Automatic annotation (TrEMBL):
<dbReference type="InterPro" id="IPR054828">
    <property type="entry name" value="Vit_B12_bind_prot"/>
</dbReference>
<dbReference type="InterPro" id="IPR002491">
    <property type="entry name" value="ABC_transptr_periplasmic_BD"/>
</dbReference>
<feature type="domain" description="Fe/B12 periplasmic-binding">
    <location>
        <begin position="43"/>
        <end position="292"/>
    </location>
</feature>
<protein>
    <submittedName>
        <fullName>Vitamin B12 ABC transporter, B12-binding component BtuF</fullName>
    </submittedName>
</protein>
<dbReference type="Pfam" id="PF01497">
    <property type="entry name" value="Peripla_BP_2"/>
</dbReference>
<feature type="signal peptide">
    <location>
        <begin position="1"/>
        <end position="23"/>
    </location>
</feature>
<dbReference type="GO" id="GO:0071281">
    <property type="term" value="P:cellular response to iron ion"/>
</dbReference>
<keyword id="KW-0732">Signal</keyword>
<dbReference type="InterPro" id="IPR050902">
    <property type="entry name" value="ABC_Transporter_SBP"/>
</dbReference>
Length: 298
């Protein structure tokens, strides 16, 4: 082959193949930032329990080399090396794991920690799904980043189908004024942008503090009494119904108390932005339906 043709052939090769190499993987995260990888991530560090769970749902569980305390679902997650808690990350331990991708919780991880990790030139995906539909999209994006789209896409589609079923069954039912209690002292609830508000809406509920802009807001007992919810829902810390949920029984003027509508949902099913959130949603929808059934006949 004449040597004079090599420059032209090289140019053709560069135009044909280099864009694919340079493009790599590109995903826009929940902060609006673009995460770029040359190839699917092989060593992932997850900075929150719900992110670890979602990575497993996306087919990327075997690629997680480090995660935080309380990452115990699925069972395989409990065997992953710990790098502290989501709010107290051991940055040296993270660096020692040599991750090629970090999945972080935008509203839960300290900004200072994330800045220090960025200084190590580690790509960071920021997660903040505030609506139920966001969960499916996140599963798909994590699948792209981990090269497990075949699994992730199926999981996302399953989530969407189940969500659509709940919307069809409960979305047009008469509204139920609902107070969701995160904790007793301080008395905490969820505002408009928190994903639990979206779950309440899915079930035909009306969050009595749904106009608050903060995701987790402190309120007073007097404010709850004034709001007069028809249902009070709490989760607590574990699988056990919190004793403080029944403390509301002293306030007999509250409609939820008068009708016995004090309900419990395990926190792992309602307070984590994962596919299991639909299990919590289904329980909440059933509780609100019970409350509708306790209304006096007209």
């Amino acid at each position: 082959m004449p040597c004079a043709r090599w420059p032209q052939l090289l140019a053709v090769w560069l135009l044909t193949f280099c864009p694919l190499v340079q493009a790599g993987i590109s995903v826009v995260d929940d902060s609006g930032g673009t995460v770029r990888l040359a190839q699917p991530a092989k060593r992932i560090v997850s900075l929150a329990p719900h992110l670890t769970e979602t990575l497993f749902a996306a087919g990327a569980g075997e690629r997680i080399v480090g995660t935080v305390d309380y990452s115990e679902y699925p069972v395989a997650a409990s065997k992953i090396a710990r790098i502290g808690g989501y709010s107290r990350i051991d940055l040296e331990r993270v660096a020692a794991l040599r991750p090629d991708l970090i999945i972080a919780w935008q509203s839960g991880n300290a900004a200072a920690h994330l800045d220090r990790l960025r200084a190590l030139a580690i790509p960071i995906y920021l997660s903040q799904p505030n609506r139920l539909t966001d969960v499916a999209g996140e599963i798909e994006r994590l699948g792209v980043l981990a090269g497990s789209s075949a699994v992730a896409d199926r999981a996302a589609e399953s989530f969407r189908q189940r969500l659509a079923g709940l919307q069809k069954r409960y979305g047009s039912l008469p509204p139920v004024r609902t107070f969701y209690q995160i904790w007793k002292q301080p008395l905490m609830t969820v505002g408009r942008r928190q994903i639990i508000s979206d779950v309440i809406k899915l079930c035909g509920g009306d969050n009595v503090f749904g106009k608050l802009e903060t995701m987790a807001a402190s309120v007073t007992v007097e404010a709850v009494i004034a709001a007069n919810p028809e249902v009070i829902v709490a989760s607590g810390m574990d699988e056990a119904r919190p004793e403080w949920l029944d403390d509301w029984n002293r306030w007999t003027s509250i409609l939820a108390v008068a009708r016995g509508n004090l309900f419990f949902i395990p926190p792992d099913l309602i307070q984590r932005h994962t596919p299991r959130l639909l299990e919590g949603a289904e329980r909440l929808c059933q509780h609100l339906e019970s409350a509708r059934g306790r209304r006096p006949a007209k």
